[in-house]
Specification:
163 residues, 8 strands, 2,3-Dihydroxybiphenyl 1,2-Dioxygenase, domain 1, 4 helices
C-alpha cells in the first residue's frame, strides 16, 4: 500500500507543530530539533516539516511504499513515462534508512519514491559525519520550479543531501 508524502520547510518548528497538530487532530509521530512527521491514516499521508531549507514552503512530494515490489513498480512507471530518474538506492535521510529514487515532473517539482527500512538517530548520516547544514535548500519562491527542485531532482549534484 502506498502513502502520499509531502515535505514542507518551515521557519518556526514549534509554531508549525502546534498548527498542524490542531489541523490533523493528532500529535506528530516523530519530533526532532529540526523536524517533525505525522503518519496519518485518514487520509493516508506521510506529512513532514523541517527547518532545514532556506525558504519556507513546499520542498517535494512523493510516495512512500510498504513493500520493495511497490518501489520497483513506481520506478518502472517513471521509466515508461520517459522521466529522468535519480536512483539513490540505499540511503539515509529524514531520520530514516530507505531505498529511494527521485523524478522531476515537467514543471520541475521533485517527487521522491521510497521504501523506509528503519529509523536512525540523525537527520542523515552524512550530517553526523560532516556536521552539514541544510538538506535540499530551495530557491526563492519566484525562481523557476526546475531550480527549486534541483537539489532533490535528477540534476542534483549532491543527492545525499536530499530528503
Amino acid at each position: 500500500m502506498k502513502r502520499f508524502h509531502v515535505h514542507m520547510h518551515v521557519n518556526d518548528l514549534d509554531q508549525s507543530i502546534a498548527f498542524y497538530s490542531r489541523l490533523f487532530a493528532v500529535q506528530p509521530s516523530r519530533v526532532e530539533k529540526d523536524y517533525a512527521k505525522w503518519m496519518l491514516e485518514d487520509p493516508r499521508v506521510n506529512f513532514a516539516i523541517s527547518t532545514r531549507g532556506s525558504n519556507p514552503g513546499l520542498d517535494h512530494l512523493g510516495f512512500q511504499v510498504d513493500e520493495a515490489h511497490e518501489l520497483a513498480d513506481l520506478k518502472d512507471r517513471a521509466w515508461s513515462a520517459d522521466m529522468a530518474l535519480l536512483d539513490e538506492g540505499a540511503t539515509s535521510c529524514c531520520y530514516a534508512r530507505s531505498e529511494k529514487h527521485w523524478v522531476t515532473d515537467p514543471q520541475g517539482v521533485a517527487w521522491e519514491h521510497f521504501h523506509t527500512l528503519g529509523n536512525i538517530p540523525v537527520f542523515n548520516e552524512s550530517d553526523a559525519r560532516e556536521s552539514a547544514a541544510a538538506c535540499c535548500p530551495t530557491a526563492a519562491p519566484s525562481a523557476p520550479a526546475a531550480k527549486q527542485a534541483a537539489c532533490c531532482g535528477p540534476s542534483s549534484t549532491n543527492p545525499s543531501k536530499c530528503c
